[in-house]
Amino acid sequence: MITSSARRNALGAGLAAVAVAVSLFGAAPAANAATSDPAGDAVQDCAFLTDTGQEVCVDHGDDLHAAVYDETGYTVIETQTAPSTAQIKAARAAAAVYVVAKLYDDANYGGGVKEIDASGSCSGSTIWNVGDIGSGWYGRVSSFAGYSGCRVKIWEKVNFKGASLGYLASSKNVGSAMNDQTRSVQAAK
Prior knowledge:
alpha+beta; Gamma-B Crystallin, domain 1; seven-stranded mixed beta sheet; four-stranded antiparallel beta sheet; disordered N terminus
C-alpha cells in the first residue's frame, strides 16, 4: 500500500514542474481575509470535482489544494490561462484536476471560495456544468473568476434556469440583480 507521503514523493518531480509552470502565469485574484460570514459562521473554502461529484472543504485560509489531494488523490492545477503543453503532460502523469472557476462570497474576489475543478481545461466545445452549487452556497456568490482558459456563466436557479450573467472571464461584482442569487454555474471556452 502506498501512503500519501510516498505518493507525494513519487510525484514530486512532475508536480514541481507543474508548480513552476503554474506560477509563471501569475497570481489569482486576491482574496480578502474574511474569517466569518455575516451570520457569524466560520467561512470555508470548498472544491467541487465535477467528474466525481466530490466536495472537499477547509477553513478559509487553509490549503484547499492539499486537502483535495489528501482526500481524493488528485493534484489541483490552477492557472487563469489555458494550461501549457508542459502542464498538460505533467497532469497526465499524475492524477490531476484543473480549476475551471471560482465563486467568491464577496465582491472583489473576497471571502470564502467555491472552486470548480474538472478533469480538463476549457477547450473546443467543452462545457463544465454544475447544475446545483449546493445549498451551503445559496445566497453567497458576489464575484467569480474563470481559470484554465474558461469563461464563467452563473445562473439564478438550479439546472441553468432563471436570470444569468456570463460567459465572462471574471466579474469582480455580479451586480445587484445577481448578487447572492447563484445556484448553478457553467465554465466554457
